[in-house]
Each structure stands twice: as C-alpha cells, then as structure tokens.
Amino acid sequence: MTSNGQVGDASCQQNNSHKPPSYVRVGCYEIERTIGKGNFAVVKLATHIQTKAKVAIKIVDKTQLDKENLKKIYREIEIMKELRHPHIIKLYQVMQTENKLFLVTEYASSGEIFDHLVAHGRMAEREARIKFKQIVAAVYYCHSRHVVHRDLKAENLLLDAGKNIKIADFGFANYYKGEDLLKTWCGSPPYAAPELFEGKE
C-alpha cells in the first residue's frame, strides 16, 4: 500500500514521483472519473501509468457487505477469472485492502447499449442482427462453462470502441450442474418473466 492508504505498486511509484500528493492511484492505475455506481460499489475510469491503456476499476466497499453478499462478490471474481470470450468484459486484475476490493476490468468506451438506444433510437435490422449474434455467442460460451449470468439486460450490455457487444456485471452469476435448475429469485424486476412475480418456477 502507498503511504496515503491507497493500493500501490513500488514499480509504478518511482516513475511517477513528480505527481502531487493528492494524486489518486490504485496499483499502477491513475484514477480519472466515476463512470458507474451501485449500492456497495463505484466504477472508475482509470489509465495504466506505464502503458496508458484505459481500464474500468470496480471498487467494492467490503465494510458495507454482509457475509452472504461478500461471498457473492468473490464468486463473481472466480467466474470472471474463468471467462475469456471476445464479447465478455475481461477481468485483468484483483487487488484488495482490509476494507476495499478493486476489480480491474476491460473498459468498453462506447458505454451501455441502453444509452445508445436512448440516444439513437432503435437499431437497423442488420446492426441488431450482428449485436444479437454476439450476445448469443457469449451466452452460449457461458453455458458451455456451466455459468449463468442471471441479469442480462440493456444496462449490462456494453459497447467497445468498435460498437461490439461486451457482456458485463456478473454479480448475480452462478454455476449450475447438469440439468439442475437454479431457483434463486434474482436479477432486475423490469426484465423478469411474469411467472416469477406469480411465484411460479
């Protein structure tokens, strides 16, 4: 850790001794701005000090999580470490302190497909077909690894610089075995199937 209580890396500190004391850094990454917020986490845009590559860093406040939710966070990390697909956000690195978790991931610079649709309206059929093919390919890959996302929605479908799909946020993801069905009620209510609200399986 650095002297100001932030996660640091000695190999990066020496090359950036000219930075002012207020300079915010996590490991070898310079924090720039907030690009997302949740109940127990905030997502920051950051730049790798040496390579200048842009990344997203999800900062989780462990002190705000009970034992069950902390278990889910570590499961999310475990799942993301296993997944390597061109249309799934990549997890590059995980760092932690006593109170914080830092998940360094690929940055999808074109944002959510939800915001894209709000700004530009519905997609042309050809464009929608390409996006749908990418989503199906990523979901099929997850299922082949016995992983279910369980919260697929427009807000969790990100777009990279080339407007390609990147599935994000595996906070509700879980493993399944064989033909066993997962019965936990989770996800986002606006996207849930009607039978879930009726208490049906």
From TrEMBL:
GO terms for molecular function: ATP binding; protein serine/threonine kinase activity. The keyword Nucleotide-binding applies. Its EC number is 2.7.11.1. InterPro entries: Kinase-like_dom_sf, Prot_kinase_dom, Protein_kinase_ATP_BS, Ser/Thr_kinase_AS. It comes from the Eukaryota. The keyword Nucleotide-binding applies. Gene3D superfamilies: Transferase(Phosphotransferase) domain 1. It catalyses: L-seryl-[protein] + ATP = O-phospho-L-seryl-[protein] + ADP + H(+); L-threonyl-[protein] + ATP = O-phospho-L-threonyl-[protein] + ADP + H(+). ATP binds at residue 58. Residues 29-201 form the Protein kinase domain. It holds the Pfam family Pkinase. Keywords: ATP-binding, Kinase, Nucleotide-binding, Serine/threonine-protein kinase, Transferase. Belongs to the protein kinase superfamily. This is non-specific serine/threonine protein kinase. It comes from Ciona intestinalis.
